[in-house]
């Protein structure tokens, strides 16, 4: 079973969405908790809102007070209404919302029968109910519910789908939007990354790049993200895709929230010291850049290196597939910064024996885009010839929205709009 938790400031919208399904015969109300009851058990939206009004009136600081949760068993599960109600109660109790007013809707408009729960995330005193480690706790509760109600395991299903989800984007295959979305919608569930740079280092393994867009529109500051497919040389190709097309989890607000949670998680993790020890070991046991990268990959860690036009290293990031964490070199310590590695490998290169053959090998190693070796099984596709360590130049992503032959009419329009906005800002 998979749980999806949505938060918003629009209680009416969440109730109206579900109530419309009821009116259309595609849903029904299964259960209400701490709600004002009606004599005929029929509810209008205003009547439902009455139960939440005291909580919203007391709320002072929480902008996104409305909870809209869906619990989704496997399509092959057959769950009775009684069990759906018990599952909803168990889930809400475990998540800390058991005393809240909430209403459970059963949706039958698609083959996968599932339930939606609408509630509020502030208590009767207006205080926000903690959502710390919400996603992790929710996943653990879902695993318990699968055992309690004899449901098919979502974890096993996800593992079988990993091959599809974690595949690099192939622009030539078409449908880039769906390929990008498949990665973006799942990558945050698996990996911790603390900055946009670390996020992009991880996405580069999938031939994807994210760019922050900031500007003024109608007198208001606009912030957002767009996503690009990358070709085999890590150059942008095609038109950008707005984060909103992919989903809320792809947007800037969701990412910034993930950055904060990742920072909190790594504070209590031993991963930093362990990956530092592996880097030290790889440095001591290798005498050049290529050997270092191979050594790191043998330990399940990808190295993403960024170079400018002169070949100088200005960024280095480590992706640990064992702990599923992403580390910018300097965040591990000054001794792992890009400048240190640039000087180290430059000096090692200068002190190598200079026969013509060895010099050619050294130059080839510096220019080479990828090396083939076996890494963590989750990223088995990276053992191919063209998808390993990423060597990108400073001009790899020229311009804001390049005009390349597109594949999606909606995104062509979006690209043109962004170019117009850019011109207006210049004026």
Q: How many domains?
A: 3
Named at the architecture level, the CATH assignment of the largest domain is 2-Layer Sandwich
Helix content: 40-55%
Low-confidence stretches: 159-164, 365-413
**Strand order, largest beta sheet:** 1-3-5-4-2
- For this structure, the CATH topology of the largest domain is BirA Bifunctional Protein, domain 2
Specify Rg, calculated over alpha carbons. 25 Å
Percent strand: 15-25%
Name of the level-1 CATH class of the largest domain: Alpha Beta
Q: How many H/I helical runs?
A: 15
The coarse overall form would be: elongated
Q: List the secondary-structure elements in sequence, H or E.
A: EHEHEHEEHHHHEEEHHHHEEEHHHEH
Average pLDDT figure:
80
Q: Let me know the number of strands.
A: 12
Secondary-structure-derived class: alpha+beta
What does this structure look like?
The chain is an alpha+beta fold. It folds into three domains: 2-158, 2-Layer Sandwich (BirA Bifunctional Protein, domain 2); 166-268 and 397-426, no CATH class; 271-393, no CATH class. 43% of the residues lie in helices and 20% in strands. The protein contains 15 helices and twelve strands. It has helices at residues 11-23, 45-58, 81-95, 134-148, 154-165, 176-190, 196-204, 243-246, 252-267, 271-284, 289-298, 329-332, 338-350, 356-367, 409-426; strands at 2-8, 27-33, 66-72, 102-107, 114-120, 208-217, 220-230, 236-242, 301-307, 313-320, 325-328, 391-393. Strands 1-3-5-4-2 form a five-stranded antiparallel β-sheet, with helices on both faces. Helix 3 packs antiparallel against helix 4 (134-148) and helix 10 packs across helix 11. The longest helix has 18 residues, at 409-426. The protein is elongated. The termini are far apart. Mean pLDDT is 80; it is low at 159-164 and 365-413.
